[in-house]
Design brief:
Layout (H helix, E strand, L loop, with lengths): L8 E6 L2 H12 L2 E4 L5 E5 L2 E7 L17 E5 L4 H10 L6 E8 L2 E9 L5 E6 L19
Parallel strand pairs: 1-4, 5-8
Antiparallel strand pairs: 2-3, 3-4, 6-7, 7-8
Length: 144
Amino acid sequence: MFKIAGLDHLVLTVRDPEATCAFYQTVLGLEVVDFEGGSKALACGSQKIKLHQQGREPEPRAQQPTPGSADLCFITAASLPEVLAHLATCGVAIIQGPVRRFGARGPMESIYFRDPDLNLIELANYGAADPEPREQIKTSGEKA
């Protein structure tokens, strides 16, 4: 059996790539990457988020590419009060948070909002979370 080393990219199906790029660049500070032929992506650390316009998705593609079907969590080192102030200046409505959650690396504190296609976006900070371990969902063979 082999092991996965990490995630290279994921694809978001969007209605309007320009609006999506403007949102992620302004609100989250992601860099827009333009490709030959007009396709776009968003640089996110060492990964990227490729954007496919609804109805113009290249092959191969997801079986049912749908705007608004994603639930993404981004990690920030910024304090959540700082993030909340920035989101307020951008006119972003907060759905929930700050709330404590348990992420891939342990306890974290998160806030939730939506992007232009209504994807759920979670911004999390590990440094602000309660250091007490919390119950974690286990996969088969995994220890808590």
